[in-house]
Amino acid sequence: MELQKISSKGPRNSEETAELVNRRINLLTLHLNPVQDNPVQELELLRCAGKMKAINVSTETLSEYMRGKHRDIQEEVFAYFNSRPELQTPIEISKDEHRELCMKQLVGLVREGGIRPFRYVVDDPAKYFAIAEAVGSVDMSLGIKMGVQYSLWGGSVINLGTKKHRDKYFDGIDNVDYPGCFAMTELHHGSNVQGLQTVATFDPLTDEFIIDTPNDGAIKWWIGNAAVHGKFATVFARLMLPTHDTKGVTDMGVHAFIVPIRDMKTHKTLPGVEIHDCGHKVGLNGVDNGALRFRSVRIPRDNLLNRFGDVSRDGRYTSSLPTISKRFAATLGELVGGRVGLAYSSVGVLKIAVVIATRYSLLRQQFGPPKQPEVSILDYQSQQHKLMPMLASTYAFHFATLHLVEKYSEMKKSHDEELIGDVHALSAGLKAYITSYTAKSLSTCREACGGHGYAAVNRFGSLRNDHDIFQTFEGDNTVLLQQVAGLLLKQYREKFQGGTLTVTWNYLRQSMNSYLAQPNPVTARWESEDHLRNPNFQLDAFRYRTSRLLQSVAIRLQKHSKTLGGFGAWNRCLNHLLTLAESHIESFILEKFIEAVKNCPDENSRAALKLVCDLYALDRIWNDIGTYRNVDYVAPNKAKAIHKLADYLCFQVKNIARELVDAFDLPDYVTRAPIGVQTPSEAYTQYTQNAGF
Fold it and tell me: Is residue 377 predicted with pLDDT exceeding 70?
């Protein structure tokens, strides 16, 4: 007995003894009367492999549920490029040729193909992102060039300007008569937009703004469409107003201005504008990135995008928002669509890679039992562990980003402040998490396809190089995850100050109470398959981890801030904060996946999605099993059961892998990899023909 052991160590005071007795009684009570959401289940061994019912998946039915209402517009994009082989990007192409081809692809799609993405940027964002996914799968450079033209350049005019700007520029942007740039990043400032140094000084005598680059560090850098094709740029600069005091000017903060950079007829660079080419890049060489310097470039006062702040003829500044910080936040908030699009497009890239690698792994045969035929490499457990959790993650990310797009579309219509905050947090977290995962997965897929994966024709190299920058632009991933962590901590503080929680963080309402209580010693030992595949257990486990991380980092920050200050404490806890943000995003992704499974109307498709969802959840839990073991959230035998079941689910997902990748409904033209075609018998024929045999 515990009390006997303690008494043998020496006398204790009555308070210590009473506390020990109460703790022991509470533990015994939990053993006898466990607190649970589900009916009591008998402990049982995992069912053997033969007892799980086979799933008959209809690829067409599952695909219909996956791709939804914008499937037709994507098919139009694929059909256009399939009918125009001269617009298909060859494997070997120079930088300059790729840039010109990219422009021809965009102009052809819009003017000949009749696809007008700009019309959906505001009115139907979900349709715009569906087009962007399809276009990006044709050529990622084309997808980015389209995004620069419509989401960044066009989006800044529509979202930051007013009716006069829409009336003047909409048609020209829509039909690509006005190709433009988004000039925010500077040589010395990328993520820190508030630190931009380019200035726009108002001249009341001429009713103009004077755009200046004060030093080399303020040169606009990495500006898409600038090096070759752009005629306009949305330039972000500090608005300086003249005053009659000793300072001479007042800094009103960062604003956006429309600045013509090339002549509309001759295409020559305009006076005062210097344009330089950023040159050959690791990837995306179809996009003409350039650098812009401005030397006293004058633009009309009307070229200020004045939705959140305006300057009158006599130089007076007016705004509906009272402070520079609020105007800055509102400006950046309207540009969040870029992050939404990158998260969505990154899932599209992951789909292509997973399709190619899975089809190849089903086709490729190596080794086998003595004197028997060779077996598919996907029959090897190691290959299953490389690809099947990745396939599950692809499905999970698909549903999470669909939800994000829906929320973004709702936000654009309602302008609800609470929803704006939710979309900001979700877009930052999902963009960072998904693009980082995809970047790692592209290398894994290449490796999983062996030497053939190294052939340029099989796309992994170009996909990897083109996608790599997704982790940096529209917000560096490490910076974005810190924003998510900061918002979590804000919600945590509000929870304990009696505030209300917004929708995205709703689960924290319970988590700070139930999830942070001592783990139940009975449920910690449940190891039946039904329990482990229960979505309540899975989601609770994810949320428990997030809640523990949130509470512990809040305590650490408070402790270190006393000696290091706020900035020093944040830096000391930075890796902890990044892990917290990733954990929160994983919880959100699982929640949306579980909802998608429940909402699937077809029984067989629902069963397939449930299998994939369970693999996603249990694989994630197993990968962080140390966290759960450290706090006794799962007992040793339960940890083993999770590992064993995750292995088995990998095997089961492998059995329907072809149907699952075919449900993405990517035509052979899109995958364009001989080792990734739908019909295995054609794969090697295409591959050898490509080599000239």
Answer: yes
